[in-house]
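Lab meeting, action items carried over

1. Structure of the two-component assembly. Owner: GW. Status: complete.
Input record:
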Amino acid sequence: MSKSGSLISIQGLGKVYRVGEVHVEALRGVDLEVTAGEFVAICGPSGSGKSTLFHILGGLTPPSSGSVSIDGTDLAKMTDSGRTNMRKTKVGFVFQKYNLLPTLSARDNIAIARHIAGKPLEHDEWFAEVLDLLGISGRLDHKPRAMSGGEQQRVAIARAIVNHPAILLADEPTGNLDTKNSDTVLNVLRGLNERLGQTILMITHNPEAAAYGHRTVNMRDGQIVY
Amino acid sequence: MINKLVLENLKHRPVRTMLSIFAIAIEVTMILTLVGLSRGMLDESARRARGVGADIWIRPPGSSAISFSSAPMSEGLVRFFSEQPHVTVATGTIAQPIGGIDTVTGVDLEQFSRLSGGFRFLSGGPFQGQDDILVDERYAKQNGLKVGSYVKLLNKQWRISGIFESGKLARMVMPLRRLQELTGNTGKLTQIFVKLDDPKLTNDTLRLFKAKLPDYAIYSVEEFTSLFSVNNVPGLKQFIYVVILISVIVGFLVVFLSMYTAVLERTREIGILKSLGAGPGYILAILVRETLMLAAIGSLLGIALSYGTRWLILEFAGATLTAMVTPDWWPTTTLIAVAGAVMGALYPGWKAIKQDALEALSYE
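Predicted assembly:
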């Protein structure tokens, strides 16, 4: 844990992208603390910087300035290879478009995350409980094309948490789903948070979805506005 | 797990997979067929040379063992060799190129029979007239000839008087005098065969002949047949190397294109793997294993196809061309295919490693 017992500690975070000759300031001094076991919704219009924040937290891109600490590890000081290693165990991603590997079954999509992390492919009892909670135990031998959007997203969630990550980053997890499937996925996320204590940060445009979290952080123009 | 992913990726794009495998297979078949053909031709020539039954083989001065020269030696030399100690038979033949690598051989049948025991006729028999010809079974089969059929050679029609078992001297044989006369080589020979009363005296006799005729190419039959190798055919080795190089380039280009397309097509999947924490080694391992699998299957198919090309050669050009199966070249061709394929996968692999995870994830 970083200072004040936060699992995630962000201070003065800035990110500048260079698009051709133009510098785009995506984040301008973001400060945020998230404690372990929290379920935080991050809302904001397109271009507000929430996805950039996620990508930095997930180690997909380095910060330009400020400090970001996850579970005591400072991302700002990490090399590419260090961030790659961090993604294996500390962070789990859930994307709007599910991002499952189309050629593998649901079971293998989950197993490959274990393999990349260098862990045995067989999961433990805890994970069997997670699969029941997600309601996909009977769909594990199907390939993504044979599954509904809701099922694919639940497989993506299973894959994201199979390595016990410190945080689960969900980027618009219900963006491609109908209301019924959205409710299912959001209930699953809340269940994971309540029953397993999984720390979750979720980007959403939808206030109803945001209401599933313990608190909502609003962003605008690269800053947190609360 | 990687193997499973590789296998599923290959199954996911069956046409591309099959095309890549087939291209690698053709690369392997090309090499194996060329080597098999070269060796087969040389082996067949050596077999026919051994079938003559001579102990010593004499060729004109300055000639190589493998050549299509006409008739630069004097017929008088036959008498010279006949009078040497321990010589039981000496006879000469004339070989006349008739286009491509085919030759027709002029033979004194009586003398040749004394030397070799004669041709074993499958149908018909020796020459009945001046314009008769003998052909071996392969030539007859390829050209659909029977005893009594006519074949046009040297601007003349020749009647087939006999078909003999392959493996002795030549494929087409005609009377020595007639061929000498027709080609303006009266009194001339291409080669002379000598049989001794005791084959153990071959080396001593060889030394004697060489001392008496130092300019002539004089070989024991073992020496002579050992010269039928790829190394002794001018340009053949270089030709094989050129074909191998072309094959490697073909394999390289096909795998390059296949893997490059695969990397582009799987940009998003590579992004997914990176988001899960897959490093450069993991991504590269997937592509390399996929390439190795293509190369391995392609090589096996290429080896199988080389049996097919051999069958085609023997079936449709067996009189002119002979091909062998060359298992000792299988590891070499497989290595060549693998090397070409791995080289072809290097740039796509590098591109995959260098791909930005964020850009890859947003790739549609």
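2. GW to write a short summary for the group page. Key points so far: Chain A touches chain B at residues 55, 58, 60-61, 81, 84-89, 93, 95, 99-104, 108, 111-113, 115-117, 121, 159 (CB under 8 Å). Helices of chain A lie at 50-57, 80-89, 106-116, 125-134, 149-161, 179-196, 207-210.
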